[in-house]
Amino acid sequence: MSHETWTTVDRYIADQFIPHDEAFDAALKDSDAAGLPAIAVSTAQGKWLHLLARAIGARRILEIGTLGGFSGIWPARALPPDGRLITLEISAKHAEVARRNFARAGVADRAEVVVGPGLETLPALAGPFDLIFIDADKQGYADYFPHAVRLSRPGTLIVADNVVRNGAVADAASTDEMVKGIQRFNAVVAADRRVTTTVLQTVGAKGYDGFAVILVERP
Ligand code: DHB
Ligand code: MG
Predict the structure, then answer these.
(1) What pLDDT, in 10s, does the model give residues 44-67?
(2) Are 216 and 158 in contact (CB under 8 A)?
């Protein structure tokens, strides 16, 4: 199967199951216009984050890596009116785009963008969060993970994007810094007795990659 087929099927899935919503189109369009890289989660993946948040009744959600806010809108829309999405972003420019996108999507009252390097903003946060989505610089994942666990309660789900990297994650000899960052993350998670984990491989418009799904048993 080719990337073209995966993209066609992603479009089919969105057409079948995900009602068209101008706020998402506008979020991607404005992100693109502002020069942000086109690496947000796909629509089908965003809907999955939304369903996950609803299934676990999430009231507090943490995202590490806001980008233009596209991925954040999905779980934010699963929150009750008094729920909260806190999303961390290193770039002030990205954060500004994301705030506009949150406002247009009607979640500005529930979604807060915190600007700064994750390793500087994470220590100031207080948990617990019900759902934590890691989707930032791959070299940083292994260092974000202990913070994510600290900000969890028993039963918190941590989801991490991009943990397969077109299969390169299984190549121990890879010299790609992003791949090596993900390998370090996977090894740290695998060795942590406080969590239980699987990885789901994914294909779609974003190519071949995967999500780590990590259940925190004991923070
Ligand atoms: C890439 C994809 C992502 O989803 C991401 O968060 C970062 C980078 C990429 O394909 O390069
Ligand atoms: Mg990603």
Answers:
(1) 999 999 999 999 999 999 999 999
(2) yes
Token pair in block for residue 1: 């199967």
Report d(CA 139, CA 136) in Å as an integer: 9
**CA atoms lying within 13 Å on the CB side of residue 204:** 21
Name the pLDDT band for 1 (thresholds 50, 70, 90).
confident
Which residue matches tokens 């796909």? 42
Ligand 1 interacting residues, C-beta cut-off 6 A: 39, 135, 161-162
Q: Identify the structural domains of the chain with CATH numbers, from first to last.
A: 3-216 (3.40.50.150)
pLDDT of residue 110: 98
Nearest CA to ligand 1 atom 4: 39
**CA distances (Å), origin 210, targets 71, 151, 168, 200:** 15, 23, 11, 5
**Which ligand has the nearest atom to the CA of 165?**
1
Ligand nearest to the CA of 36: 1
Rounded to the nearest 10 degrees, the angle between the axes of helix 43-55 and helix 3-17 is 50
Residues whose CB falls within 8 Å of the CB of residue 22, separated by 6 or more in sequence, listed in order: none
- Which residues are paired to 152 by β-bridges? 129
Measured distance CA(146)–CA(148) in Å, rounded: 5
